[in-house]
TrEMBL record:
This is Berberine/berberine-like domain-containing protein. Its cofactor is FAD. It comes from Botrytis elliptica. The keyword Nucleotidyltransferase does not apply. One of its GO terms (molecular function) is oxidoreductase activity. Residues 204-243 form the Berberine/berberine-like domain. Keywords: FAD, Flavoprotein, Oxidoreductase. InterPro entries: BBE, FAD-bd_PCMH_sub2, FAD-linked_Oxidoreductase. Coiled coil: none annotated. Pfam families: BBE.
Amino acid sequence: MRFHSRDNTSLWEIMKDIGSNQPREMALTFQVNWNDEFGGLNINVNAKWVGPMEEALIAFSPFLSLNPIQRSITQIPWTSIYSSPVLGSGGSSSCDRGTKSSNWAVNLYTISIPALTRTLQKLADFYSAFPSSRTSVWSIEKFANSVTLSTQDDETAYPWRNTTIYTFVALQINDDSQDDAINAFGASFQAEMAASSGYGDLRVYMNYGRDEGEEVWYSEGKLPRLKALKRKYDPMELFSHYNPVMISEQHKKSVNHGRLGSDLK
């Protein structure tokens, strides 16, 4: 479903109403992007429901009642869930070869409508200031966490099990002279979201991390056991390319995150 940016407050309110009572059958992804065909700033909502179409239409009726400017409702088998096209998913991606992307992420535990509204306006200003970077997107992912919370936190290495929302901006840099300014916007986004996240410190899903550090990705409480496992199974720190658990200062200084294996002898 595609919505005008002016519908943002209504969308945030629906998301807040769902809150922590999100059915386990429901998965929501909001993507704020720029699309000239639809008047510039848009909000796409990719809503999935595991179950009958009739249940899905009832569950997503609050979104449909807002009269999206574009919508596509389909029923697909499990085998096609990742390959099926998503409305509004065209354009550049952080995973495209040769793409220069600056990603900034935050875990959220509460939904602050004022913070989301301010961030939307800042993104509109960003698109105006950096028209060559209008392939950039802001993503908000909301999944049911009832099953995640059913596992005790100290039983696994997976941190931040009570996360309500995963959000990030993927800022596309198509003009090298704008690196600093675009990264400054990303840092501002991360600070704004973290301040309204529901916790006093920054927490980031490890796969979305950049340079925040291992305590932010894995949590301080889990690091002692993780480092013990690292010393046992990877004492040479060979598997340390991306957001690793570090066990030596020397390796921390020498690791090259730009190319897998470039520092291996």
